[in-house]
C-alpha cells in the first residue's frame, strides 16, 4: 500500500507542473540564499581573523603587561627584555615557525615643508615577511634592505607628505629618556594594505634604526610568534612561559591568539551579530517554504475530498501529502543547494568587491585590520554548509505540511468538497 | 573707661571712613604692569628643564637668546642625546637642527603647539616668552583673592586674535609685584589645556621675573615640567647672525 501511495504522490507532483514548478522555485531560491549567505558570513569572519593574527596578535604574542594596558599611547618604557635571553630560550622550540620583533613609536615625519605625525614600526624584513607579509602589499618601489636606511610608507601618508620612492624623509621622535632624536631615511617603497589606519599613518623601518631612535638596547615592545599548529597556541604559550620565566624581566605576558582582546571580545560579538542575521535569513526562507507548501496543499482540498470518497483512509491522505512534500523538498533542496554551491564557488574564485558599497570616508575611519575593507571579499564555502542547508530545506518542507495534512485527514469528503481556500 | 572705649572706637570708625580708598587698577593697567615685567627687547638666559613623566625625572639644560617676541635661538647642552639640538624661531617659522640626523626640520602652523623636547612646554611657549598681553588680549577683573599668602587680582583674558592657541587665560596676578603667579590656559572651546605655576620670583634689572615655573599639560595629564632660569640678562646686544640658519648649522 505504501508503495502505491508513494507512486501516487510522485504522479501528483507531475500532474500540475506549474504548481510544482513554483513550489520548487521557492525552495531553490531559499536554498541558494542559505548556502550563499552562510558562506559569505563564514568568509567575513575568516577574513577578519587572518589579518588580526598577522597584524596584531601573531599566534602567540609576547608583550609587557603595562604596554598592553596602555597600548593606545604606545608607552616607551614597558619593554620585552632582555631580548637576547628570551630569543635563546625560544630557539629550541620546534613548534615555532617564525619570530617577529617589533618596536612601535610615534614620530614626526618631515619632507621639505611638509610634516605629519606618524606611527613608526621597526621590523626586521626577513622576519616580517612571515607574519605581516607587508612585502606583498608594496605597490611602488621595493621593501627596504636588512641594514639600510630605507623605509616603506603607507600610500595615504605618502600622499599627504608628497613623497615618492627615492625621496628622503626625516623621522623625529622622543626616545625612552624623552630626548629628541632624528634620523633621515630613504623611501624604498609605498605600501597599500587596505587597512586604512596603517595606510594613513604608518612607516616601517629597520629594527636596528628603530632601536637606535628609541635608545633601546636588547629590548623591543613586542614579539609575534607564528607556530606550526595554531590551534595549539595555548599549550605552546604555557611552554614558553616556563622557558622564559627565569630569563625575562617581570611582567612579560605570553598571549595565545585565542586570548587576544579582539579575538576574545570583538570577534564573538561580530559572530553573534552575523548569526543573528543568518537566523533571520533562515526564518524568512522557512516562512517562504511554509507558505508555499501550505497553499499547495490547501488549494487541493476538493481533490482530497474526491480521493477520500474513492476510499482513501485518513492515514493514506497524510502519507500522500508527506510523500509529495518529501519529493518536492528533496528535489528543491538538492537543486537549490547545488546551485547555491555553484554560485558561491564562483564568488569564492572571483571575490566580491565590497569597496563599491562603502565610501572612502567610511573606509578611512575603520581602525581594525579588516582586510576585506578595501579588498574583495571571498565567501568560505564548505560541504557542511551545503548539507546543513539541504537538510533544513527538506525538514522545513515536511514541517510545513503537518498542519494541512492533518486538517485534510480530519475532513469528511463532503466537507472537503464544500471547503473554500481557508485556514 | 566706657568713654575711652567709645572715643577709641569712634576714632577708628572715622579714620576708616575718612581714609583714602586705595584705587583698584583697571584690567588694562594690570596688563600693562605685567608686560613691563615680562616683555623685553633682548634677553640671554640659561635654563634647566626638569621633566617629571610617569614618575621619572629627567633634566635638560639649554641656553636661549631672544629678541622681542619675533626671534629666538635655543641650544640644548644636555643630556648627551639632546646636546647640539638647536631651535631657531624667526617670524612664524621654527627650524630645528638635529645633530643625530644632521638635518633641519621646519615647523609652522599648528605644529608649533607640539611639545618641545618631550616637555610640557610647546615650541610656541618657549620661543614667545616676550608676548605683550595688552596687544593680544582684552581683560576682565574677575576677583581679588589670596594665593599662597599673596593678595592677587584674578584676571580673565580673552584673545583679540581668532587663532590664538590659548584663547582664554585666567591669571592670578600678584598685587604687589604685578606678575602672574598662576595661569590657567584654555582653548577657544573652553577646554583647560595647561596650568602654569610660578614657584619663585626674583627682582632682576628693575623688574620682577619668574625664575622657577611649573607647567602642566592637562591633555597629557601624566607629566609636569619645571623650568628653572639659572641666569638671565636683559637688554643685551645680540648679533643678528645669532638668528640665522648659519648659526643653526654651525658645529
Structure report:
The complex is a heterodimer of chains A (423) and B (251). Chain A has 423 residues and is of the alpha+beta class. Chain A folds into two domains: 2-53 and 264-418, no CATH class; 81-248, no CATH class. Chain A has 16 helices and twelve strands. Chain A has helices at residues 2-15, 17-57, 65-69, 83-91, 125-128, 155-161, 196-201, 207-214, 233-244, 261-298, 301-309, 314-350, 360-364, 383-400, 402-410, 413-418; strands at 60-64, 96-111, 114-123, 138-141, 150-154, 168-174, 180-191, 202-206, 222-227, 252-256, 352-353, 376-377. In chain A, strand 2 (96-111) and strand 3 form a beta hairpin. The longest helix of chain A has 41 residues, at 17-57. Chain A starts with a helix and ends in a 5-residue tail after the last helix. The model of chain B is unreliable at 16-20 (pLDDT under 50). Chain B has a single domain (27-249), classed as Lipoprotein localisation LolA/LolB/LppX (outer membrane lipoprotein receptor (LolB), chain A). Chain B is elongated, with a radius of gyration of 22 Å. Chain B has a 13-stranded antiparallel beta sheet. Chain B has 251 residues and is α+β, with helices and mostly antiparallel strands. The chains are: A alpha+beta (423), B alpha+beta (251). Chains A and B meet through strand 6 and strand 7 of A and strand 2 and strand 6 of B.
Amino acid at each position: 500500500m505504501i508503495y502505491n501511495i508513494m507512486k501516487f504522490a510522485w504522479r501528483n507532483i507531475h500532474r500540475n507542473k506549474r504548481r510544482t514548478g513554483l513550489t520548487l522555485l521557492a525552495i531553490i531560491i531559499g536554498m541558494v540564499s542559505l548556502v550563499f549567505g552562510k558562506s559569505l558570513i563564514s568568509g567575513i569572519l575568516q577574513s577578519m581573523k587572518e589579518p588580526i593574527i598577522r597584524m596584531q596578535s601573531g599566534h602567540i604574542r609576547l608583550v609587557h603587561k603595562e604596554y598592553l594596558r596602555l597600548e593606545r599611547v604606545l608607552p616607551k618604557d614597558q619593554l620585552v627584555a632582555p631580548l637576547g635571553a628570551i630569543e635563546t630560550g625560544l630557539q629550541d622550540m620546534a613548534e615555532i615557525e617564525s619570530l617577529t620583533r617589533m618596536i612601535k613609536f610615534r614620530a614626526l615625519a618631515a619632507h621639505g615643508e611638509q610634516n605629519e605625525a606618524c606611527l613608526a614600526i621597526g621590523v626586521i624584513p626577513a622576519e616580517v615577511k612571515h607574519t605581516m607579509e607587508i612585502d606583498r602589499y608594496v605597490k611602488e618601489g621595493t621593501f627596504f634592505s636588512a641594514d639600510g636606511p630605507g623605509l616603506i610608507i603607507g600610500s595615504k601618508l605618502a600622499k599627504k607628505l608628497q613623497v615618492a620612492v627615492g625621496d628622503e624623509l626625516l623621522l623625529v621622535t622622543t626616545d625612552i629618556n624623552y630626548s629628541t632624536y632624528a634620523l633621515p631615511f630613504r623611501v624604498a617603497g609605498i605600501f597599500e594594505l587596505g587597512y586604512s589606519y596603517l595606510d594613513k599613518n604608518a612607516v616601517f623601518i629597520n629594527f636596528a634604526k628603530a632601536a637606535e631612535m628609541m635608545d633601546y638596547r636588547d629590548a623591543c615592545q613586542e614579539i609575534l610568534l607564528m607556530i606550526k599548529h595554531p590551534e595549539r597556541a595555548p599549550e605552546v604559550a604555557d611552554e614558553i612561559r616556563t622557558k622564559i620565566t627565569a630569563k625575562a624581566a617581570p611582567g612579560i605576558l605570553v598571549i595565545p591568539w585565542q586570548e587576544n582582546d579582539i579575538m576574545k571580545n570583538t570577534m564573538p560579538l561580530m559572530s553573534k551579530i552575523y548569526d543573528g542575521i543568518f537566523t533571520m535569513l533562515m526564518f524568512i526562507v522557512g516562512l517562504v517554504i511554509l507558505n508555499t507548501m501550505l497553499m499547495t496543499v490547501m488549494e487541493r482540498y476538493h481533490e482530497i475530498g474526491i480521493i477520500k470518497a474513492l476510499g482513501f483512509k485518513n492515514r493514506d491522505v497524510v502519507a500522500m501529502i508527506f510523500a509529495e512534500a518529501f519529493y518536492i523538498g528533496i528535489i528543491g533542496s538538492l537543486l537549490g543547494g547545488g546551485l547555491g554551491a555553484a554560485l558561491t564557488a564562483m564568488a569564492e574564485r572571483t571575490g566580491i568587491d565590497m569597496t563599491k558599497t562603502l565610501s572612502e570616508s567610511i573606509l578611512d575611519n575603520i581602525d581594525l585590520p579588516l582586510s576585506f575593507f578595501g579588498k574583495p571579499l571571498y565567501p568560505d564555502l564548505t560541504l557542511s554548509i551545503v548539507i546543513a542547508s539541504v537538510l533544513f530545506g527538506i525538514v522545513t518542507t515536511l514541517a510545513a505540511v503537518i498542519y494541512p495534512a492533518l486538517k485534510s485527514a480530519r475532513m469528511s469528503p463532503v466537507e472537503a468538497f464544500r471547503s473554500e481556500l481557508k485556514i | 573707661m566706657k568713654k575711652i572705649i567709645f572715643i577709641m572706637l569712634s576714632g577708628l570708625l572715622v579714620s576708616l571712613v575718612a581714609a583714602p580708598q586705595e584705587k583698584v587698577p583697571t584690567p588694562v593697567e594690570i596688563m600693562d604692569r605685567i608686560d613691563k615685567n615680562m616683555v623685553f627687547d633682548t634677553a640671554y638666559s640659561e635654563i634647566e628643564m626638569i621633566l617629571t613623566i610617569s614618575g621619572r625625572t629627567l633634566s635638560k639644560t639649554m641656553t636661549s637668546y631672544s629678541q622681542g617676541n619675533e626671534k629666538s635661538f635655543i641650544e640644548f647642552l644636555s643630556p648627551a642625546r639632546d646636546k647640539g639640538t638647536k631651535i631657531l624661531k624667526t617670524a612664524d617659522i621654527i627650524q630645528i637642527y638635529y645633530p643625530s640626523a644632521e638635518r633641519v626640520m621646519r615647523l609652522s602652523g599648528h605644529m608649533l603647539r607640539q611639545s618641545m623636547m618631550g616637555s610640557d612646554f610647546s615650541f610656541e611657549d618657549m620661543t614667545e616668552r616676550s608676548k605683550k598681553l595688552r596687544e593680544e588680549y582684552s581683560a576682565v577683573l574677575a576677583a581679588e583673592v589670596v594665593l599662597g599668602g599673596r593678595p592677587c587680582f584674578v584676571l580673565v583674558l580673552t584673545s583679540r586674535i581668532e587663532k590664538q592657541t590659548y584663547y582664554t587665560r585666567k591669571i592670578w596676578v600678584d598685587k604687589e609685584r604685578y606678575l602672574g603667579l598662576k595661569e590657567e590656559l584654555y582653548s577657544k572651546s573652553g577646554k583647560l589645556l595647561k596650568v602654569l605655576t610660578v614657584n619663585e620670583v626674583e627682582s632682576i634689572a628693575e623688574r620682577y621675573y619668574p625664575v622657577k615655573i611649573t607647567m602642566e599639560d592637562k591633555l597629557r595629564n601624566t607629566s609636569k615640567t619645571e623650568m628653572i632660569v639659572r641666569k638671565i640678562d636683559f637688554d643685551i646686544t645680540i648679533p643678528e647672525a645669532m638668528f640665522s640658519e648659519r648659526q643653526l648649522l654651525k658645529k
